[in-house]
């Protein structure tokens, strides 16, 4: 059992580092991004990475209370992506 | 080998696989050189990457003794909304001319996103702008 728990600790640390590196790399694309579509895509990826960070934090602490947080982040991320894309397409969000 | 050990190993494996897919997707987002190609890479982050992390969360809660299946709700929500947001971003790329305009459909038809309704046409000034379909 100690082997399994040690591997789990390593896996959680690897997931944290990967998600943080993912946030940084998509932030680079957000700054560079030549077209507005690239910037919206980078923001969408950053929201999904933040969702993953919250999920891995819940695994690390072994508690269930982060479920609502991640569901809210997922919903807000989808709505904000659609709102940004619609604003660029139509010049207005709700016509 | 007890059941807790097996679920803990499975959760660690899911975490490794999910981290690998997230890293690959974000590197693809940074390195590809065309907006439509860049749109393809981060979809792996949204489906397999986050799906594996949520699966690891489910397995970890099983190994702790308290079963929780709430994560399936987030997984379903993400799987449903990922194609919709990708479709919107592709439409932004098409309309801002960031990629090649799609070729004309074979039959006497227009793509739905490029279709111009009758009322929106600027008819009096430029009647030649919209060519007559035969």
Q: Key terms for this structure?
A:
A: 95 residues, mainly alpha, Helix Hairpins, B: 134 residues, 60% helix
What can you tell me about this protein's structure?
The complex is a heterodimer of chains A (95) and B (134). With 95 residues, chain A is mainly alpha-helical. Chain A has one domain (2-90): Helix Hairpins (Orthogonal Bundle). Helix content of chain A is 86%, strand content 0%. Chain A is built from 3 helices and no strands. Chain A has helices spanning 2-32, 36-61, 66-90. In chain A, helix 1 (2-32) packs antiparallel against helix 2 (36-61) and helix 2 runs antiparallel to helix 3 (66-90). By secondary structure, chain B is mainly α. Chain B has one domain (3-102). Helix content of chain B is 60%, strand content 0%. Chain B has helices spanning 3-31, 35-40, 43-63, 71-95. At the A-B interface, helix 1, helix 2 and helix 3 of A face helix 1, helix 2, helix 3 and helix 4 of B.
User: Most extensive interface, residues per chain?
Assistant: A-B, 50 and 55 residues
Instruction: Characterize the overall form of chain B.
Output: elongated
What's the CATH C level of chain A?
Mainly Alpha
Span between termini of chain B: 74 Å
Order of helices and strands of chain B: HHHH
What's the shape of chain A?
Answer: elongated
Strand fraction band of chain B? under 5%
Oligomeric state: heterodimer
Tell me the number of structural domains of chain B: 1
